[in-house]
Amino acid sequence: xxxxxxxxxxxxxxxxxxxxxxxxxxxxxxxxxxxxxxxxxxxxxxxxxxxxxxxxxxxxxxxxxxxxxxxxxxxxxxxxxxxxxxxxxxxxxxxxxxxxxxxxxxxxxxxxxxxxxxxxxxxxxxxxxxxxxxxxxxxxxxxxxxxxxxxxxxxxxxxxxxxxxxxxxxxxxxxxxxxxxxxxxxxxxxxxxxxxxxxxxxxxxx
Length: 206
Ligand code: ATP
What we know:
- The structure is a single chain.
- The longest helix is centred in the first third of the chain and has 14 residues, at 14-27.
- The chain has helices at residues 14-27, 50-61, 72-75, 82-92, 104-108, 119-122, 140-145, 150-155, 173-181, 192-200; strands at 2-7, 31-36, 67-69, 98-103, 124-129, 161-165.
- Helix content is 39%, strand content 16%.
- It is an alpha/beta fold.
- The chain has a six-stranded parallel beta sheet with strand order 3-2-1-4-5-6, with helices on both faces.
- Adenosine-5'-triphosphate binds next to helix 1, strand 4 and helix 9.
């Protein structure tokens, strides 16, 4: 099974890394691919170029086996639609289950994603929840897909919906960017190697 963890990673932080590690261990994944979005369809394109966000991601995970910084959205032109990313992963890994990890906010807005129903033809969708997060009531489309058995995620290549509670550290890239712009020290929120890169390239200064 292969996990897919998309995001802007502007910059990557311990909230992302801890969630990805827990997901990898819980589902016994062969690998988890962290995929920076070049041009996120639902938000402004980040000021820090995608290539630099990828560099930071590589530094953050270089000592973690099974974590892969995947550059396929950066290599592609046009908006970073997840369905296109999954098509490319599906053709690269025809025999593997694909688990697409998303947060509850993303899940609650999934119907606004480009060709969202097709996501389930290509991958399972795993919603990473936190204790007080509110998930909207499931309609028939979702209810038919929901499973509580990880075995089904392994046996089928795609098509299931699964909810998994996970530690979500109270860290956001927005807060980190704000700290740095204010001249404060972001240490312990993200790996030191990433902080060094940010300082060397003078990123996120106001
Ligand atoms: P920003 O503050 O710029 O919106 P972010 O910190 O939310 O960024 P993203 O790159 O947008 O990070 O998030 C990528 C993925 O990581 C999303 O699926 C999001 O739900 C998840 N994520 C973000 N922060 C955390 C966290 N603290 N714990 C667990 N998952 C997180």
